[in-house]
Automatic annotation (TrEMBL):
InterPro entries: ARM-like, ARM-type_fold, EVH1_PP4R3, P4R3-like_central_dom, PH-like_dom_sf, PP4R3-like. One of its GO terms (molecular function) is protein phosphatase activator activity. Regulatory subunit of serine/threonine-protein phosphatase 4. Residues 142-640 form the Serine/threonine-protein phosphatase 4 regulatory subunit 3-like central domain. SUPFAM superfamilies: ARM repeat, PH domain-like. It comes from the Eukaryota. Belongs to the SMEK family. This is Serine/threonine-protein phosphatase 4 regulatory subunit 3. Residues 752-782 have a biased composition (Low complexity). Residues 710-725 have a biased composition (Basic and acidic residues). It comes from Scleropages formosus (Asian bonytongue).
């Protein structure tokens, strides 16, 4: 058996800061002659090849995470991780690493502990601070070593940061940078690179404020150009000063705001381009740098938001027809970046931000921009619109409903969005997918408000179906004009992938509407005959489009709405589905499964009208499908349904049993309930009552006659029953009880307690023939009693038509007959 304790996955960190899986194998540790030391070895479990051979260096910082993960940096920008299947295996390898490095296995980071005694550490803590070497050209190597040695220890890192801050060391280092650069002292420039990079990793805001000041930031970037691992220095300063140009689309009068924008851009450039990708240990050391950029953006948004003149000029130029295209392009891009910056704001600040933009007229401005021909401008405007919709869809809905009172449908904002979705030129329809998502958000009732004065859902949906739905469905209707696609339609819809993708997007949105909108979409589908047009697409050669059409119909059927069902049956809309099923043949694919699932749903949910429609119109086409029982099950449902329609009186008899119309004795109620719940419900619904042979020649009217007479006798005997109950000779009698019990041959038996029953007109009661206490019974044996027989679990009640003779309840006759008649057995089985 394979040792799972040592089973590991090997990961390496790529340039995008994502872990790449290098394979699965088994790890071991041992001395490797080539590497001159103890090493970690991982061999692939598939072929035994070597996945990893890494020497355990005494000074490498290994880190154990989550009990099953060991992470370390093999070299600069090359991080490795071993992910163990079991904790025990991780612990074993961790002990080996700690043994080589002379560390306690209880630690999680092998280099977190500084090699110093507790007494020395106390002395360090009590000492005033770290003493830096003089900032001279000849001491740069010493400074670089001091910075590198301080980074692993949080305590020494703190002391180094204080020393650099208090002594103004950064500016002294930058002066040396100019000297080294003038002298072309590459060794000194390489030391300065390591020192400045180390100062970044000190993660201290006070140091960043000095480094990112107007006078220092370009020199700091200059120091970071001379990476010793690169053959040639980078030219970051040249890019920032000559290539990158700051454009003021609207002149900024505030010098502080302008300086903040410059600073943020440069710091972002340092983070993204200049600094090397941080290792897994260095990533958290740059958290303050992230925060510095974040709060700068918050400040910029706040300062621009407070400058009313700036925003007024911005929107005025955006909507001015005289503004040239290049200028408008820059204005839109600025507004897009402005909205992107707002995502860094806290929720309350973001509310104020978008409220300010709304008051300034951002939605009318977007309407103008979206109507332009420049695709880049429209794309940027779409991004801005998405920020607004995601933030506050109700604000957008309110705007479009207000403008509908003044403008034509063609220039409404939502219709512009729909048109851009339809006219997207991207072969992959990237923009159309984004716009469809925005439309879905706008028509989603889940994010609509309902107040005491108005209901946004009803108002907006009425607006949308009146003014916008015809624009959305236009491509669908245009491409499905006939039952069979015309030649032009065939070219457009059935062979053009891009058009098919667009129709699939529209169908997806319509399916969403079917699910979430009630009468609005129902009226639209039925009045415009949308489903019939959609099902034309079942013939498309693009399977995804045909499946979208099927999904649309399945969603409608899933509502179990009789209005939809009648519409489907009236127009024979199962026909294209059945054709697609037959054309698919015996192929076992998604189309086959989806169609079968739809019919199976109709069968399981017992949708009677659709079941009858499918069987009556398409059974001949589907009867040979025997690899699933769906269609045979539909036929069975249909036959059972027809049988119930043909024999409604049998159904009424079953209902008498189901409704428990007889009064029951408390002692037998529990037994009968248990029998009832143990009976198969399907059998009760769908089975067939067996009539005894003696009654088979009777008509349905004769069969039902005892039931009607029984009900009449019951009413007539109520008063009579009260008198009987009042007589002393009947005072000891108990309530009637009937037990239905089944023999092993599934025939039912009717049993009664030996005491006489009070129920008028029932077998064994004073008013029925052949019972104790009835005239002429005496000591004679009782005539055949009514039989209850079953087939397939169905209980059927059969009575005789001669049980309606009126008889008197005489106390003397009753007592005589009780004495003369033989006692009844506790459970006497009666058979037909």
């Amino acid at each position: 058996m394979t040792d799972t304790r040592r089973r590991v996955k090997v990961y390496t960190l790529n340039e995008e800061r994502q872990w790449d899986d290098r394979g699965t194998g088994h790890v071991s540790s041992g001395y490797v002659e080539r590497l001159k030391g103890m090493s970690l070895l991982v061999r692939a479990e598939s072929d035994g090849s070597l996945l990893l051979e890494s020497k355990i260096n005494p000074n490498t910082a290994y880190q154990k995470q989550q009990d099953t993960l060991i992470v370390w940096s093999e070299a600069e920008n090359y991080d490795l991780a071993l992910s163990f299947q079991e904790k025990a295996g991780c612990d074993e390898i961790w002990e080996k690493i700690c043994q080589v490095q002379g560390k306690d296995p209880s630690v999680d980071i092998t280099q977190e502990l500084v090699d110093e005694s507790e007494e020395e550490r106390f002395d360090d803590m009590s000492s005033p601070g770290l003493e830096l070497p003089p900032c001279e050209l000849s001491r740069l190597e010493e400074v670089a070593e001091l910075v590198a040695s301080s980074l692993p220890s949080p305590l020494r890192r703190e002391k180094l940061a204080l020393a650099v801050e208090n002594e103004g060391y950064i500016k002294k280092l930058l002066e040396l940078f100019h000297v080294c650069e003038d002298l072309e002292n590459h060794e000194g420039l390489h030391h300065l690179y390591e020192i400045i990079k180390g100062i970044f990793l000190l993660n201290r805001t006070a140091l960043f404020e000095v480094m990112f000041s107007e006078e220092c930031i370009m020199d700091v970037i200059g120091c970071l150009e001379f990476d010793p691992s690169l053959p040639q220095p980078r030219r970051h300063r040249e890019f920032l000063t000559k290539t990158a140009k700051f454009k003021e689309v609207i002149p900024i009068s505030d010098p502080e705001l302008k300086q903040k924008i410059h600073q943020t851009y440069r710091v972002q450039y340092i983070q993204d381009m200049v600094l090397p990708t941080p290792s897994v240990f260095e990533e958290n050391m740059l958290s303050t740098l992230h925060s510095f950029i974040f709060f700068n953006k918050v400040e910029i948004v706040g300062m621009l938001q407070d400058d009313e003149k700036f925003l007024t000029d911005l929107f005025a130029q955006l909507t001015d027809e005289a503004t040239d295209d290049d200028k408008r392009h820059e204005l839109v891009n600025f507004l897009k970046e402005f909205c992107a910056f707002s995502q860094t704001l806290q929720p309350q600040n973001r509310d104020a931000f978008f409220k300010t933009l709304s008051n300034m007229g951002i939605l009318p401005a977007l309407e103008v921009i979206l109507g332009m021909d420049d695709p880049q401008v429209r794309s940027a405007a779409t991004d801005i619109f998405s920020y607004l919709v995601e933030y506050n869809p109700s604000m957008v809905r309110e705007f479009v409903m207000q403008e509908s009172q003044q403008n034509d449908d063609d220039i409404l904002l939502i219709n512009l969005i729909i048109e851009h979705m339809i006219c997207d030129t991207d072969p992959e329809l990237g923009g159309a997918v984004q716009l469809m998502g925005l439309l879905r958000t706008l028509v989603d009732p889940e994010n609509m408000l309902a107040t005491a004065n108005k209901t946004e859902k009803s108002e907006f949906l009425s607006f949308f179906y009146k003014h916008c739905m015809h624009v959305l469905s236009a491509p669908l209707l245009a491409n499905t004009t006939d039952e069979k696609p015309s030649k032009a339609t065939l070219n457009a819809t059935f062979y053009d992938f891009q058009t098919s993708q667009l129709l699939a997007l529209i169908l997806e949105l319509l399916t969403f509407c079917v699910e979430h909108h009630t009468y609005h979409i129902k009226n639209y589908i039925i009045n415009k005959d949308i489903l019939r047009r959609v099902l034309v697409l079942m013939a498309s050669r693009h399977a995804f489009l045909a499946l979208c059409a099927l999904r649309f119909m399945r969603k409608i059927i899933g509502l179990k709405d009789e209005f939809y069902n009648r519409y489907i049956m009236r127009n024979f809309l199962f026909e294209p589905v059945v054709k697609a099923f037959l054309n698919n043949g015996s192929r076992y694919n998604l189309m086959n499964s989806a169609i079968i699932e739809m019919f199976e749903y109709i069968r399981v949910e017992d949708m009677k009208s659709l079941t009858a429609h499918v069987v009556e119109n398409y059974w001949k086409a589907l009867e040979d499908v025997d690899y699933v029982q769906t269609f045979k099950g539909l036929k069975l449902r249909y036959e059972q349904q027809r049988e119930r329609q043909d024999h409604p009186k049998l159904d009424s008899m079953r209902s008498i049993l189901r409704n428990h119309r007889y009064r029951r004795d408390a002692r037998t109620l529990e037994d009968e309930e248990e029998m009832w719940f143990n009976t198969d419900e399907d059998d009760l619904e769908d089975g067939e009552a067996i009539v005894p042979p003696s009654d088979k020649m009777k008509s349905d009217e004769d069969l039902m006659d005892p039931i009607s007479k029984f009900m009449e006798r019951r009413k007539l005997k109520d008063a009579e029953e009260k008198e009987v109950l009042g007589k002393s000779s009947l005072s000891g009698r108990q309530s009637p009880s009937f037990k239905l019990s089944f023999s092993s041959t599934t025939k039912a038996s009717l049993t009664s307690p030996s005491s006489a029953s009070h129920l008028p007109g029932s077998p064994g009661s004073p008013g029925s023939t052949g019972s104790p206490g009835s005239p002429g019974s005496g000591a004679k044996s009782s005539p055949p009693a009514p039989a209850i027989t079953t087939k397939g679990g169905l209980v059927g009640l059969v009575d005789y038509p001669d049980d309606d003779d009126d008889e008197e309840d005489d106390d003397e006759d009753d007592s005589e007959n009780r004495d003369e008649s033989p006692p009844l057995s506790k459970k006497s089985k009666l058979s037909s």
